[in-house]
């Protein structure tokens, strides 16, 4: 690597705090973490933008003459970004190890940007504008998959980046801001979609079946134009992220792994102060005798714990609960379920803040265990009350308890642990595997919820309702047991301490 490339890794932002002095620059640390957290906001924005756009998009493609746009196609189109998420998270380890954390995030930002513009205008260069066809549908899904790859990369590398630059005493709090940004990104896009719609309305399903001519004039704009603006709106935060990430430094751990100890020391000094930086650099070098090691160097339990953290984060069923919340609120007779959904989004943000400000005081394990028990109460509450006349408010309260419990526990803390639990020399690959499992189980839970929920043992019974939420409640209890028995507490430990911990665990089993 030449001198110019080394300086690029240090970045213009690196000069923001001088040399850091004895105390280091907290402002410098916050500025680079806030840029990385923008990746989390884009993660939330990209995965939630479909919620406002999908009805207009469905009506648009139902006008196609060369194929029938079925419910199956619409389900695939609504979820196609998840396929990209699985690909992106699987690639994240390779890219983070070979390109570095910073350059991988630049790639993610560019993918977000291309996806936003491509989803808004999929006809670009090859197709006639406004004419839905089978080929156009494939191209549209291609752009959504590209965005999903960006989400997959950001979901793995943003927490990794923050975890590797943050001092151990505030690392949990700073990584938790990434989850806050994800939830905030979802809330932002709800408002953006709401403002884009303005006086226009979403088309009704029965109108769609009769063709665009039957759709009311106020809804036709949504079908021809509205969904495009919703997808295109992501280009603004995506472009900002891709630009700003160019001005942050590469992480000290990665710099040491490519032999750039001088640049690593400079970054560490700005964050931690010069005397502390020298000790941290020494600890990093002791655990990085080689750039990478085989994944199972520290035993299978290390990888297993990381994978199961990801599996439980999704298997507790939170996404199915959140996806179905607007419909439940609608069934309760509320005039505008979207307003209640936005209110729940605000509650989610407040409880994510609880995690941010308590994770360093209470530790990771207690928050996960209490959150699991709270989710179990919420899920079982929904199972017992859903569909019973007069208990609608109890069902709504149970959903709120379920979501709030997730937001102060598994939502942020799972990302904190995935960012810090693995030894330095296997972190890139191990994080990639863990996050890939997260997206795989996200897809499994999202795609199995409706069939499970609609199951009946006898015509008209509620078997599927209580079975589905009862199952999620039991999984929440198993998650609490898993954390209690197998997950190590990482509060206050350096990333290098994790190498020593897993080395001891590995030696116990030999």
Question: Outline of this structure?
Answer:
The protein has 510 residues and is an all-alpha fold. Helix content is 75%, strand content 0%. It contains 22 helices and no strands.
Q: Can you characterise this structure?
A:
This protein is mainly α and 510 residues long. Helix content is 75%, strand content 0%. The chain has 22 helices and no strands. Helix 6 packs antiparallel against helix 7, helix 14 runs antiparallel to helix 19 and helix 15 runs antiparallel to helix 18 (392-407). The longest helix is centred in the first third of the chain and has 32 residues, at 134-165.
Number of strands: 0
Report the order of strands and helices: HHHHHHHHHHHHHHHHHHHHHH
Strand percentage lies at under 5%
Instruction: Tell me about the largest β-sheet.
Output: none
Shape: globular
Topology of this structure?
Blueprint: H1 3-10, H2 26-48, H3 50-61, H4 71-98, H5 101-120, H6 134-165, H7 171-197, H8 205-209, H9 217-232, H10 235-244, H11 252-257, H12 261-272, H13 274-287, H14 300-315, H15 318-331, H16 337-362, H17 364-385, H18 392-407, H19 410-420, H20 427-453, H21 463-486, H22 495-508
Helix pairs in contact: 1-12, 2-5, 2-6, 2-7, 2-10, 3-9, 4-5, 4-6, 4-20, 5-6, 5-9, 5-10, 6-7, 6-19, 6-20, 7-9, 7-16, 7-19, 12-13, 14-19, 14-20, 14-21, 15-16, 15-18, 16-17, 16-18, 17-18, 17-19, 17-21, 20-21
